[in-house]
From TrEMBL:
The keyword Transmembrane helix does not apply. The lineage of its organism: Eukaryota, Fungi, Dikarya, Ascomycota, Pezizomycotina. This is aldehyde dehydrogenase (NAD(+)). The active site is at 245. Residues 24-467 form the Aldehyde dehydrogenase domain. It comes from Aspergillus avenaceus.
Length: 473
């Protein structure tokens, strides 16, 4: 059955419901309103929590095989509707259609792959009089709080591990991008029993309502470090389990022995894809002084050719940034280039346009203390920095409260490993950046997060640890 993408509902207990008051998002390419969506109240959340708690009683006792079947149907439903969802994703998020299709495909891959993992059940002791087993049991009702940069992949990346491990889940999309997530809820309603997967759209007050709610047992939050702190403080009151996937300011260190022509296309894409609105992409680029000038000139030449425009236009690589708040932040940061006397090698200003468009900007060797280096831009403003001493560049790379991702690029793998081993981040790549799979745990160090998602380790984050003692009479 195909999806209608013109009307939008909450999904509570597998029923499509609406609310008295509604709200809407904005198409960032045109600044025109998108359709109305529900504006959930505390009562809507109460109903969803009650349904989630009721469903948990049965769902937590279903077999992994049964859950795999439901998840496989969910993956099939996304696959059948991937074109229309990609179109909707571009309309609400702004990213080019090709990148929207890529996000849908990632979500489908996560839904198909995570359920192939198995959680360990260890026999710790098996003696004549006693058997001790350690195992993982589901937690209860989960709350998924999702950001606006990857609304589909990050929602599915929470739904799948939660329900696969026997939990029920209530998804709260970002108010900026509720559309695809509401449709995911409709697809889920066709695949799971009532109350297992629910989606509520709301305003800024719905997230705090969820973190405060006594009937929610775990929060899986993806968003900024500032909000993450608030989420953790709120969850502390009821000792909710919490996983936090937060912001990053990833360094990438390019050594003097790299093949410049081969790495430039990757460096460009990994810094500017999704208009640089990815948590774990290159946000500070350190290039060895011996190759700096050639590297900068070639990177500028390459990035200059990225076509900017509405995500629906053929060949566009840089869509608009997602919302007015992000656009305002980027305008402010762009302004610091002039006020701090920095030198843009590309871009550096924002022309008037219909949408929230920010031209790709590369800042030529700014001071380490400048705002463009210290702050997570989350917009296409990249500082390119010179380095000469290995210890010094590692210290600069680590000198941030973030620790999400980091990379070293070199043809000498021993050197690269030596440097990579000193980087303080949850994800460290050699000759790559921004790579993830459903099988690999993903999380941040320092202010980039607590806990991780995906892989077996991520599945355990959706579980309680339980030790079972069986004494034989
Ligand atoms: P945000 O923190 O503003 O919002 C994230 C979500 O939290 C939204 O759904 C929002 O409605 C909700 N929210 C806001 N205040 C809340 C509160 N007090 N209590 C509960 N929920 C609340 O983040 P954003 O602007 O949507 O996303 C951008 C940020 O997310 C960037 O910093 C980026 O690096 C980070 N991010 C991290 C990852 C990761 O996996 N580590 C992935 C994507 C984005």
């Amino acid at each position: 059955m195909t999806l209608d993408i013109t009307t939008f509902f909450n999904v509570i207990n597998n029923e499509l419901t609406t609310t008295v008051a509604t709200r809407h998002g904005i198409n960032p390419a045109t600044r025109q309103p998108n359709p109305e969506v529900p504006l959930s109240t505390a009562e809507d959340l109460d109903r969803a929590v009650a349904a989630g708690r009721q469903a948990f009683k049965k769902w937590s006792r279903t077999s992994y095989e049964e859950r795999r079947k439901a998840l496989s149907a969910f993956a099939d439903a996304m696959e059948e509707n991937k074109d229309v969802l990609a179109q909707l994703l571009t309309q609400e998020q702004g990213k080019p259609l090709t990148q929207a299709a890529f996000e849908l495909q990632a979500a489908i891959t996560w839904a198909r792959t995570l359920p192939t993992l198995t959680l360990p059940e260890d026999v710790i002791e098996d003696k004549e009089d006693c058997k001790i087993i350690h195992r993982y049991t589901p937690i209860g009702v989960g709350g998924a709080i999702v950001p606006w940069n990857f609304p589909v992949h990050l929602a599915v990346g929470k739904i799948v591990p939660a329900v696969y491990t026997g939990n029920t889940i209530i998804v709260k999309p970002s108010p900026f991008t509720p559309y695809c997530d509401l449709k995911l809820g409709e697809l889920a309603a066709r695949c799971f029993p009532p109350g297992v997967v629910q989606v509520l759209s709301g305003g800024d007050d719905l997230g705090p309502m969820m973190t405060e709610h006594p009937g929610v047992d775990k929060i899986s939050f993806t968003g900024s470090s500032a909000t993450g702190r608030r989420v953790m403080a709120s969850c502390a009151k009821s000792l909710k389990r919490v996983t936090l996937e937060l912001g990053g300011n990833d360094p990438a260190i390019f050594c003097d022995d790299v093949d410049i022509d081969a790495v430039i296309p990757k460096a460009g894409m990994l810094s500017f894809m999704c208009s640089s609105q990815i948590c774990m992409m290159i946000k500070r680029m350190y290039v060895h002084e011996k190759i700096y000038d050639e590297f900068r000139d070639k990177l500028v030449e390459h990035v200059k050719n990225f076509k900017m425009g509405a995500g629906t236009e053929e060949g566009v690589f840089l869509g608009p940034v997602q919302n007015s708040m992000q656009f305002g932040k980027a305008q402010n940061l762009m302004g610091s280039i002039a006020t701090e006397g920095l030198n843009p090698a590309l871009g550096g200003s924002i022309p008037d346009s219909e949408g929230y468009f920010i031209p790709a900007t590369i800042v030529d060797n700014p001071a380490e203390t400048s705002r463009v280096v210290q702050e997570e831009a989350f917009a296409p403003i990249l500082p390119l920095l010179k380095w000469s001493d290995e210890d010094d560049v590692i210290a600069r790379a680590n000198k941030t409260e973030s620790g999400l991702g980091a990379s070293v690029w070199s043809n000498d793998l021993d050197r690269a490993r030596r440097m990579a081993d000193q980087l303080e981040a949850g994800n460290v790549w050699v000759n790559a950046h921004c790579e993830v799979t459903p099988m690999t745990p993903f999380g941040g160090h320092k202010a980039s997060g607590i806990g991780c998602e995906w892989g077996v380790k991520g599945l355990t984050g959706w579980c309680n640890s339980q030790t079972l003692w069986v004494k034989k009479p």
